[in-house]
TrEMBL record:
Species whose genome carries this gene: Streptomyces beijiangensis
Keyword ATP-binding found: yes
Residues annotated as binding AMP: T31, R36, N57, L58, V59, G85, F86, P87, R88, Q92, R161, R172
Chain spans, region NMP: 30-59
Similarity remark: Belongs to the adenylate kinase family.
Segments passing through the bilayer: none
Protein name: Adenylate kinase
Keywords noted in UniProt: ATP-binding, Cytoplasm, Kinase, Nucleotide biosynthesis, Nucleotide-binding, Transferase
Name of the coding gene: adk
Length: 218
């Protein structure tokens, strides 16, 4: 399956993507994670992306689209993928549509995760992520690790992302409404959008998502 996940920052896209990708046996491709990996490795791409990310703005399309396409061209993504954080504006969506079409492929679904704005700010401000694996996500109040600052799953160090401050979150939400939400209409016109609520337990949301994708059997 070829799936795009959309939803505001803090909707739980990364958390859900990890479970869904496993259940559906497709790679989880997160442009945010790809940028963060480039930043920690000190690559030119990482240097180009960092200031935009820290300000809560989108990294320019010239950088982003090439990076996303390169990742989708890897052998593990031949049979499908779950995109998380891409496309993030209409021109990225158009670039994705064209590149899939050129390969005789198409998307199967766009899964839209809905969550109220005040919940988003609470989730993100308390979010802590493992340095070893960004799918190991905790929250200081909602899902606190047993030992402060230490990942329950692998013992890695937990940290707060530089763009997870309240001020940057507000900016990321503005960018989401202005630039990313329009892709939902773009894909509604193609009949691809399924919307689910992202409130409730992680396992409940995953179940809802699998049902919405018609894959509750997987
Ligand atoms: P979240 O969805 O929680 O905001 P991500 O990890 O997906 O977090 O993205 C973090 C940041 O990375 C974004 O605010 C943006 O600066 C950059 N980014 C990620 N994906 C894209 C994209 N497709 N286009 C432009 N910038 C992106």
């Amino acid at each position: 399956m070829r799936i795009v996940l959309v939803g505001p920052p803090g909707a739980g896209k990364g958390t859900q993507a990890a479970y869904l990708a496993k259940n559906l046996s497709i790679p989880h491709i997160s442009t945010g994670d790809l940028f963060r990996a480039n930043i920690s490795q000190g690559t030119e791409l990482g240097k180009a992306a960092k200031a935009f990310m820290d300000a809560g703005n989108l990294v320019p399309d010239e950088v982003t689209i090439g990076m996303a396409k390169d990742r989708m061209a890897q052998p593990d993504a031949e049979g499908g993928f779950l995109l998380d954080g891409f496309p993030r504006n209409v021109s990225q969506a158009e670039a994705l549509d064209e590149s899939l079409k050129a390969d005789g492929q198409k998307l199967d679904a766009v899964l839209d995760l809905e969550v109220p704005e005040d919940e988003v700010v609470k989730r993100i401000a308390g979010r802590r992520i493992c340095r070893n694996d960004s799918s190991h996500v905790f929250h200081v109040a909602y899902s606190a690790p047993k030992q402060e600052g230490v990942c329950d799953t692998c013992g890695g160090e937990l940290y707060q992302r530089g763009d997870d401050t309240e001020e940057t979150v507000r900016r990321r939400l503005e960018v989401y409404h202005a630039e990313t939400e329009p892709i939902i209409d773009h894909y509604k016109a193609q009949g691809l959008v399924v919307t689910i609520s992202a409130l409730g337990k992680v396992t409940e949301v995953t179940k809802r998502a699998m049902e919405a994708l018609g894959r509750s059997d997987a």
